[in-house]
Amino acid sequence: MSDAAVVKNRPLQIVLSIAVAALLIAIFAWSFNFMRNEDAPKFLIAVVALVVGVGGIWALYLTVDNLISQLPIRARDLLRPYVFITPAFLILFVYIIYPTIRTIWISFFDYTRGGTPTNFGLQNYVAAFQDPALLIAIRNNILWIVFVPLFAVSLGLIIAVLVDRIKWEKFAKSLIFLPMAISFVGASVIWRFVYYFATYGNQIGLLNAIVVGLGGDPVGWLRMEPWNNFFLIVIMIWLQTGFAMVILSSAVKGVPASLLEAARIDGAGEFRIFFQVIIPYVSGTILTVTTTIVILVLKIFDVVFVMTSGRFNTDVVANMMYNQMFTRGQYGRGAALAVLIFIAVTPVMIRNIRNMNEA
Fold first, then answer.
1. Beta-carbon-side half-sphere exposure of residue 338 (alpha carbons within 13 Å)
2. Separation of alpha carbons 133 and 136, rounded Å
């Protein structure tokens, strides 16, 4: 097609692209409302989500890209990058930035379910810190922050070094990494069967079955204060050790063989090489993995909610936030607790980002 024909058809192409884009947006709006319909068949909801979510987005990208292609070269080069980053930014704004701002705003009001925000001030934060339950939750969060990264990273590093020397390295790593494929809720359900205590009848919990089989009395593991917190912490260690092992294994493999050989020639034993050569060399990776797990632990909710719902003094701040907001309908107090979690997580996230940029 000649340049003259292209220029002649350009207005038509622009109009068609705008019309198709408008049609696709209308389809997105319809599909969103359709998927929210409780009476709609689940199968059709899944089909609409798949077709519109994948095909619709793909068609929208092509349509907008075609629209940009009709513009002059300078405008085309300027606008085309924004075509691809705008959807991601909109999703980021709608699902992260706006909810964050909205939560901070709500935290300064007395806001209950079915009511309207009133009495702007710090009363929600004051009430939160005057609640003795918050002190228990903060204590428990500190226990999680200390013990989960400590044991998960330590075990992950030790396993990464040891399995690197065995024949079945890939198989062993797969078994240790396998819990990472399980959701927190799924892992909690599994461990409920481990800790389960039956008040009557047979003990189907693994630990109590062993105890009874050895002639002992069954134990209510999740009611043993304060040890029940450590029993819950074990679940997260079990889940995160595989993650730490995989990341640290890559770092350990990056330790130069010449450096290890030089240490052995100098008479250093394996323990000394581990503590004075390997650990200093991979210290940056250790710090990154540790901060990543700390961020995860600061937001811990699923394990506590499924295992105990915060009873028996096992509550954490995130579970308190959920109970305040969705069980009691105290949106203002729940938002204040969410802001406290956000404040606690932010410095660790900043540190983690800096570590990754320096790596």
1. 22
2. 5
3-class DSSP assignment, residue 330: strand
Lookup: tokens for 238: 């079990």
Give the tokens for residue 16. Answer: 């068609």
Dihedral angle over CA of 170, 171, 173, 177, nearest 10: 130
Summarised one tens digit per residue, pLDDT across range 9-23 is 677 777 888 888 888
- Secondary structure letter of residue 328 according to DSSP: S
**Residue 280's closest CA among 299, 255, 301, 302?**
255
Contacts of 206 (CB under 8 A, 6+ apart): 193, 194, 196
Q: How far is CA 144 from the centre of its chain?
A: 16
CB 311 within 8 A of CB 319: no
**245-293 per-position pLDDT tens digit:** 999 998 888 888 888 888 888 888 888 888 888 888 888 889 889 988 9
HSE toward the beta carbon, residue 70, CA cutoff 13 A: 19
Residue 184 CA from chain centroid, whole number? 10
* Residue where the block lists tokens 């699902």: 95
